């Protein structure tokens, strides 16, 4: 395209609304504009990148044998009532009514729809396996939309759903999707690590996330420093730190006025956090649950939820609920005599000696408490792993980094097919539920993640595979006929080769054109200036040095970059 | 693709929910499935056609210099309040609130969004013209969704918005879109006629619709039998039928018990409908308006609305409102002594002599009424043109046919840019509003219209340009290794040529495969059977006769079809 005909919306200033690099650059390069909190318009350059990412996803999904489908975004409540999610999905669901007062939601995910399609269209095991996917707009009314399209309320997702006749089939479908995802993220030029994940509220048996490391990521990812192990902190098992054996002392109630936090108590008792066991009280779908971890540990809510058989709403208990359970103000809860529906004790706590806990009496704590002698509960892993703990695979040390989830693959099993009575006739003539998997990629988030990994102080540095344009041809002086003639000729020849070139024929200074080209992140730049009298132009990779090359070698030089980066022309 | 891996959802039975051919065939061919009233899922085969139509639209829009954009479907109320449409857009608008109780709608059209983008991004006349388009999901809560995707509540539309510095620029942008639309519908293989249309509630100065003739169309289109004139009936001007001159007689009040309809009155007075003038009473945005047309004519509400300066809500008056205006029951309204905010008199009525009207008294009519002597009002064209009237262009006879609108091009002028203060700096350094045009194509409706024009008793007959697959390769006996080898070879060679071929390797009888291929509407079929021993296969165009051809001429035969139909390989 000729830039004189384009709506170029680059900004020199860094917009105040943006916090992270990808968001700033998407605004500055004129890729997106905000419509409302977490709702964006895609400007022409942004949409071009989005379509390129979509095409990569589409090609790899098709190559893996999946078929593209397109479901409605407007979903009737009845379908969600059938799966049981209508009532449990909270404020994240955009709900609305039509003119006849029938209830709908805007789909945040489409398990119900695809399960419904399968039960209507697939009758026999002979038709299996089937993998259907779509690239579609999703809606989630996030409590805190932020970071541009990284966490938005309207976003584009590729979601796929596989239907198999048995677990072995699902395993195969899952592995195919895993491999397709590796290819997709590779082709997009991002380093996305596949990490073990918890199955979460969506249900099912096995799941992995594709994470990109990012300081602004919303997940903690545990990596082994020795082996390939990687897992979401939600999932990574902790290893109990075994305290040195002590003789059991008599339990003592001690007045601890004004000391309610672990910090206060450490001072008061002049000891370390490790000598305490915290008792945190939750409301888990209406049940009151206490969870004990060592004073320096963090409760892992996913592990807690799973131990309780899957909790939809897990919240810290209110002061009233704490009082009902402990007969004390917040800050004095402990396991001895507590009135709760369940008491979960982190394994580490069960192996401590003579530790300090709240006394369930305002202003008091108990010293020399011991598990088994003084209280009992459900022992398990209820805390987050910490840096330096043992890798569950090799025993090496783990480290933790922030990450952003760009993809998720998930063995759902029969959770939805059973709930929605989605069955097929198997080899024995019996009606059995589909064994399902689901597989998501945040397409708009992937686009932002590519920028997070590919930018510098001047702008975006697109991998060729997803770049909005491949080559920018810049005549230095548009009033110079010879320069314009060569620039036009190169532009047309590149386009005839299948290269998506732009000609910056705007009446602007070369500096402005260079800055725009770098900000937008076009991988190659051909500058047509005075050197044409020597038959030469300047060639520059976005992240390389400027070289002077012969005019008649431009096409080959560009072609070589496509070959080098493995991008088809 | 190999059909053994495809989700094939063809139906032998005609689904009860469908009334028109395209809807029946889209269901039977497994292209769409209903999710809710007017809300559909696109199955793999349906989506392939949809994408093909989209690609044609995209190519021609790009060729016309438009740039693709993607706006959110979730639109904040504020933007619609600015244009004034939030309060006047009725029940068709899906409205919802987010978790913070902020109001949103699901966009039924995007004038506000694109005007907002233009005012933020375009500063100077130097950047003009700009034409931005999107292919996007739209939402309209239709009172009566029907005919499948022909009139649905969630549908895909291409909408474009042009921004020019003046009317001459808009004229050029509009003409470019007209030409692009002609190419698009031609390439899609449908006969769509460009007809003059009313500007309607959307406002503006000039507009045309692309209509396909259809018995189930929701518009009446007026065609001249002599020249090229074509217009929506909303727009086509009528020509007053001039009655023979009579001497004015004295007005007489006559008791007409039990006669309230024109039919009753024709009997009662033993005369013809042409001797009556009907007085219809409307509520037009709260004002009470009476409209008079000859007894055998129909009021044209669009003409009425335009005469009143644009009415948002035009409804027949209630019995109470009629009584307030006429002091009589419904059926006795007339112009003499009526109490209304406006009295609109069709020109034809103003030229009648000694006609009969309601007396504004229950049970009475007035005879020998004459315009000018007995009452006065605003004279104009307020009725529908009828078959046989004069063409406004050439004076020939017009005819009327039902049609479905697949596209609409529209000169908006400065309606939105003025309302939303969207201005740029012109050559003289002055801030002036953009001169806008908007241009829509119903993409999903176009797909259905193609089927309406291309089907037979066995199924769909896709034009090659939009067909879900180009060629179906059918081995007669999948257990015959020689047949399978040749079928596979042809399948692979066709795909290597860029032909989207499918191999029907399902374990089904040939009859089933032929039926599916015809129902889905694949343009070419290559049947690999016993004749391979003579080096031959059967070749059949979907709408042609079966021929026996040499195996090694298959590729050329297929290629020739692409050339013949002008479709690029």
TrEMBL record, chains A, B:
<dbReference type="Pfam" id="PF00587">
    <property type="entry name" value="tRNA-synt_2b"/>
</dbReference>
<keyword id="KW-0963">Cytoplasm</keyword>
<dbReference type="InterPro" id="IPR044140">
    <property type="entry name" value="ProRS_anticodon_short"/>
</dbReference>
<dbReference type="InterPro" id="IPR002314">
    <property type="entry name" value="aa-tRNA-synt_IIb"/>
</dbReference>
<dbReference type="Pfam" id="PF03129">
    <property type="entry name" value="HGTP_anticodon"/>
</dbReference>
<dbReference type="GO" id="GO:0004827">
    <property type="term" value="F:proline-tRNA ligase activity"/>
</dbReference>
<dbReference type="InterPro" id="IPR036754">
    <property type="entry name" value="YbaK/aa-tRNA-synt-asso_dom_sf"/>
</dbReference>
<dbReference type="InterPro" id="IPR006195">
    <property type="entry name" value="aa-tRNA-synth_II"/>
</dbReference>
<keyword id="KW-0030">Aminoacyl-tRNA synthetase</keyword>
<dbReference type="InterPro" id="IPR004500">
    <property type="entry name" value="Pro-tRNA-synth_IIa_bac-type"/>
</dbReference>
<comment type="similarity">
    <text>Belongs to the class-II aminoacyl-tRNA synthetase family. ProS type 1 subfamily.</text>
</comment>
<dbReference type="InterPro" id="IPR023717">
    <property type="entry name" value="Pro-tRNA-Synthase_IIa_type1"/>
</dbReference>
<comment type="function">
    <text>Catalyzes the attachment of proline to tRNA(Pro) in a two-step reaction: proline is first activated by ATP to form Pro-AMP and then transferred to the acceptor end of tRNA(Pro). As ProRS can inadvertently accommodate and process non-cognate amino acids such as alanine and cysteine, to avoid such errors it has two additional distinct editing activities against alanine. One activity is designated as 'pretransfer' editing and involves the tRNA(Pro)-independent hydrolysis of activated Ala-AMP.</text>
</comment>
<protein>
    <recommendedName>
        <fullName>Proline--tRNA ligase</fullName>
        <ecNumber>6.1.1.15</ecNumber>
    </recommendedName>
</protein>
<keyword id="KW-0067">ATP-binding</keyword>
<dbReference type="Pfam" id="PF04073">
    <property type="entry name" value="tRNA_edit"/>
</dbReference>
<dbReference type="InterPro" id="IPR036621">
    <property type="entry name" value="Anticodon-bd_dom_sf"/>
</dbReference>
<dbReference type="InterPro" id="IPR002316">
    <property type="entry name" value="Pro-tRNA-ligase_IIa"/>
</dbReference>
<keyword id="KW-0547">Nucleotide-binding</keyword>
<feature type="domain" description="Aminoacyl-transfer RNA synthetases class-II family profile">
    <location>
        <begin position="38"/>
        <end position="463"/>
    </location>
</feature>
<dbReference type="InterPro" id="IPR004154">
    <property type="entry name" value="Anticodon-bd"/>
</dbReference>
<keyword id="KW-0436">Ligase</keyword>
<dbReference type="InterPro" id="IPR007214">
    <property type="entry name" value="YbaK/aa-tRNA-synth-assoc-dom"/>
</dbReference>
<keyword id="KW-0648">Protein biosynthesis</keyword>
<comment type="subunit">
    <text>Homodimer.</text>
</comment>
<dbReference type="InterPro" id="IPR050062">
    <property type="entry name" value="Pro-tRNA_synthetase"/>
</dbReference>
<dbReference type="InterPro" id="IPR033730">
    <property type="entry name" value="ProRS_core_prok"/>
</dbReference>
<dbReference type="InterPro" id="IPR045864">
    <property type="entry name" value="aa-tRNA-synth_II/BPL/LPL"/>
</dbReference>
């Amino acid at each position: 395209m000729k830039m004189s005909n384009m709506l170029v919306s680059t900004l020199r200033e860094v917009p105040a609304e943006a916090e992270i690099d990808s968001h700033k650059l998407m605004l500055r390069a004129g890729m997106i504009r905000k419509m409302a909190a977490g709702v964006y318009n895609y400007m022409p350059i942004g949409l071009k990148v989005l379509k390129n990412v979509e095409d990569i996803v589409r090609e790899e999904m098709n190559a893996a044998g999946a078929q593209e489908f397109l479901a409605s975004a407007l979903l009737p409540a009845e379908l969600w009532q059938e799966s049981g999610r209508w009532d449990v999905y909270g404020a994240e669901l955009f709900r609305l009514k039509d003119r006849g007062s029938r209830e709908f939601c805007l789909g945040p995910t489409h398990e119900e729809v695809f399960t419904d399609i399968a039960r209507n269209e697939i009758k026999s095991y002979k038709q299996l396996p089937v993998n259907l996917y779509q690239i579609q707009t999703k809606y989630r009314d996030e409590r805190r939309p932020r970071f541009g399209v990284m966490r938005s309320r309207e976003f584009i997702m590729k979601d796929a759903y596989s239907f198999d006749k048995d677990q072995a089939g699902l395993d195969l479908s899952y592995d195919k999707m895993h491999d397709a995802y590796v290819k997709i993220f590779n082709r997009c030029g991002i380093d996305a690590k596949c990490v073990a994940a918890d199955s979460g509220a969506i249900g099912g048996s096995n799941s992995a996330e594709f994470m990109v490391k990012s300081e602004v990521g919303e997940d903690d990812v545990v990596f082994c420093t020795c082996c390939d192990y990687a897992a979401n902190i939600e999932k990574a098992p902790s290893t109990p730190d075994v305290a040195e054996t002590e003789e059991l002392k008599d339990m003592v109630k001690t007045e601890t006025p004004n000391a309610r936090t672990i910090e206060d108590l450490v001072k008061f008792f002049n000891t370390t956090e490790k000598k305490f066991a915290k008792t945190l009280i939750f409301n888990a779908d209406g049940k009151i649950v206490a969870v004990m971890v060592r004073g320096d540990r963090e409760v892992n809510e996913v592990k807690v939820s799973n131990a309780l058989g899957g909790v939809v709403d897990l919240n810290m208990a209110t002061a009233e609920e704490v009082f009902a359970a402990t007969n004390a103000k917040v800050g004095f809860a402990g396991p001895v005599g507590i009135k709760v529906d369940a008491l979960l004790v982190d394994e580490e706590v069960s192996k401590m000696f003579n530790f300090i806990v709240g006394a369930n009496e305002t202003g008091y704590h108990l010293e020399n408490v011991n598990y088994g002698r003084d209280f009992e509960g459900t022992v398990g892993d209820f805390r987050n792993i910490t840096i330096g703990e043992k890798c569950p695979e090799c025993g090496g040390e783990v480290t933790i980094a922030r990450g952003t989830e760009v993809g998720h693959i998930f063995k759902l099993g029969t959770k939805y097919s059973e709930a929605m009575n989605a069955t097929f006739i198997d080899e024995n003539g019996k009606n059995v539920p589909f064994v399902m998997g689901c597989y998501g990629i945040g397409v708009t988030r992937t686009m932002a993640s590519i920028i997070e990994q590919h930018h510098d102080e001047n702008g975006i540095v697109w991998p060729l595979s997803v770049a909005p344009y491949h080559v920018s041809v810049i005549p230095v002086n548009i009033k110079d006929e010879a320069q314009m003639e060569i620039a036009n000729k190169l532009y047309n020849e590149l386009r005839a080769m299948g290269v998506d070139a732009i000609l910056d024929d705007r009446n602007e200074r070369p500096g402005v054109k260079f800055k725009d080209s770098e900000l937008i992140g076009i991988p190659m730049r051909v500058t047509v200036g005075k050197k044409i009298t020597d038959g030469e132009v300047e060639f520059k990779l976005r992240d390389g040095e400027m070289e002077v090359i012969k005019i008649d070698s431009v096409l080959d030089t560009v072609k070589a970059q496509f070959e080098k980066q493995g991008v088809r022309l």
